[in-house]
Write a structure and sequence with these properties.
Helix content is 63%, strand content 0%. The chain has four helices and no strands.
Length: 118
């Protein structure tokens, strides 16, 4: 868990950017992972809040990528199509909510997230 303290505007903005940078995946291959990774690596040593949010964002993006890779073969037998649609909607909604919460200095726990990075 993150230790509660007063957060600067810069820390809140970088934490928000860790989440929003996942939208880079819609423009670049693996941008959904590279965006949060770059933000996190740039500021993780300067702010525990950015470190905390960067890890959460990365874990969620890696989890979503894994789930989508597992659901893609199921799309050939129709079962995977609703799963892929659900995962896409879940990703967008969760990124927006996590970004808003991070900018307010509030924690957000992503659903279906596997904690790869501790």
């Amino acid at each position: 868990m993150y230790e509660i303290r007063e957060l600067s505007e810069s820390e809140r903005n970088w934490a928000m950017l860790c989440h929003l940078s996942a939208f880079a995946g819609y423009f670049f291959p693996f941008g959904g992972i590279l965006g949060p990774l770059i933000c996190w690596l740039m500021k993780k040593d300067e702010s525990p809040w950015v470190d905390f949010n960067g890890k959460r964002s990365l874990n969620f993006q890696i989890s979503i990528l894994l789930y989508m890779m597992l659901a893609t073969p199921l799309a050939f037998i129709i079962v995977g199509i609703p799963i892929l649609l659900f995962l896409g909607f879940l990703e967008v909604i969760c990124i927006v909510i996590a970004s808003i919460r991070a900018s307010k200095g509030e924690e957000f726990r992503y659903p279906l997230c596997i904690p790869f990075i501790q």
